[in-house]
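Researcher: I'd like a structural prediction for the single chain below. Treat it as a standalone chain; there are no partners to consider.
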Amino acid sequence: MFAFVCAGCGATLTTPLSQVALPVHAHQKYGNGIQLPVLMESGTFAVDPEPWGPPWRTWEEIDQNEAAARGIHAPVHALSDGAPGAIVIAPGDARGTLLIPEKGGGYCCGLDGADGPNMACEACGLPVASRIDDCSLWQAVWLAPNAVRRRPVDGAKAAPLSWAELMAEGKGTPPFEPIATWGSRLGSDHWWSWSPQWEAAAGRALAHLLAASEGRPVTVPDGLTAEVFQRALDALLPAGPPTRRTVLAGPGRPAPDADTDILLVPTHPQTGETWAPAGPAASTYSVPLPFGVWLWLAFPEPHLTVPASGGMPDGVLRDNPPAPRPPHLFRADPGTFRRTLVRLPAVRSLWLREILENLTQHMHARLF
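Model: Treating it as a single chain, here is the predicted structure.
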C-alpha cells in the first residue's frame, strides 16, 4: 500500500492505494458526448510507463530514430513529450488538492487536461495532477510523476491473487451495458450498447491477431469470440488456405492442441502479466485480453440480467429478464487498435501498414 505526497511540501495527496495494472481503456475516447464512469476502482492506482499529455509534437517534428527508440514503428499524429510514469487514481481517492481555474482545458462537458495539470497541492500551490471528466473520456485523476512522491503505508503487504484465486473470484466484465449521453436522463438518450471496455480490449487484441496472422486468414472460436473478432479478421485478411487457428487458453481451459497457431490469453488485473502456457505451446503467439473480458469469453454466462434495485433473501435468485442486445454489430475501438499496432514491429510490413493507413475507410465500413 502506498500514499502519494506532494514533491514540494510533502503534504498527503491521496488515500492509501494498492497498485494494479493500467487498464487497456485508460486513454480511450468513446463516441461523442458519452458519459463514461470512473476509470479506476477506489483504493487502487496504476502507472502509465509511456509519456502522455502535453506538450505534444507532431510526427513531422519527430526524428524516425527517436520514434523507433520509443517503440513507435509507424507514423502517428503526435507523440507526447510529457514525463513518463503518470499515476492514475479514482477522483474520490484524491486529498488536499484544489482545481486551478485558469487550467480548465476542455469544458465541452467537463475537464480534459489539455492545458496540463489542473489541480494544485492545497498546502503549497504546486500543480500536481490533472482531473479528467469531460464527455467521452474515462473519469480519473492523473498525478504528474515529477510533482508527487510515493510513500509506503504501514500495514501487511498483500500478495497478488493467484490465477486460481482469480478464477474462484469469477469477476468477469459483461460484454454490453447501458450507455448515456452526458447529463441525459433515462429515456431517448439512454441505450444498451457493447461495453466500451470490450471495444478497447478488442482493439488491442485485433492488432495482435493481425500481427500473428502473417498475412494469412485467421479463425477464432465460434460464439461470442467470433462475434467480436471474425468479421474484422475476414475483412482485413485475405481469403483461402492455409488458415491460422486461434483458441482460448488460460487457467481452467484445456491445453492447446498441437495445431493451434495463436492463443487468446488473459492478463493479470493486478500485475499486468500475461498468462503463459507450458509445454510445446509456450512458443505460440499469445494475444492478451483483460482478465474480465477473457473470463466471459472462456466461460460465458447464460445471459446478462438487467440491473434491479432492492435486496433479496439469501438463497433466492432474482428472475430478471436478459439485458437487451446491442442494436449494431461489434466494432473494435480504433484508437486502441492504432496505439497498439504502431508499437508492434510487424507493422513495418507493407500489408499491415496499408491497413493502418486505411483505418478511416475501415471505420466508415463499421469494422471499427
